[in-house]
From TrEMBL:
Lineage: superkingdom: Eukaryota
Keywords, in A-Z order: Membrane, Transmembrane, Transmembrane helix
Protein species of origin: Rhizopogon vinicolor AM-OR11-026
Designated name of the protein: Uncharacterized protein
KW Transmembrane helix (keyword) present: yes
Keyword Transmembrane helix included in the entry's annotation: yes
Amino acid sequence: MATRKKSDIRPSINTNRYQVLSTPRYDRFSSLSLIIMFSLFLGTLYALAPAVLGGLLSNIQRAPLGNELTSNATYSMNVTGCPGYTLGSLQESVIGLTAQLSLAGPACNAFGLDISDLTIEITYQSQSTYIASRVLCMQY
């Protein structure tokens, strides 16, 4: 047994007995096992990500917009004559709302092709703000 110095011994607060201070020793095998476990955890997350995200993303119907901007000269950028949208139906829930929107008149295509009918979903983040809005279904 190694000889201990007087500085290694201190009185215990709770009793009159003395406790020996020991420095923690790090086992290189425990560090290696932590690294391996963390790597396996990351590998599992990486492997499961497409399955989890694929299930979430499959619920969203995507339609190509077809309005790739080539230059500003292609579209008028003038919205003064644009009709806007009318609200067809509104469904409100505890977490947000869903609305059916229809173009109120002829399309003006100021910034690209106007969408004639669409469904938009808004999810509340709190009582006064919302997280995101997304287009669920579009028709030209």
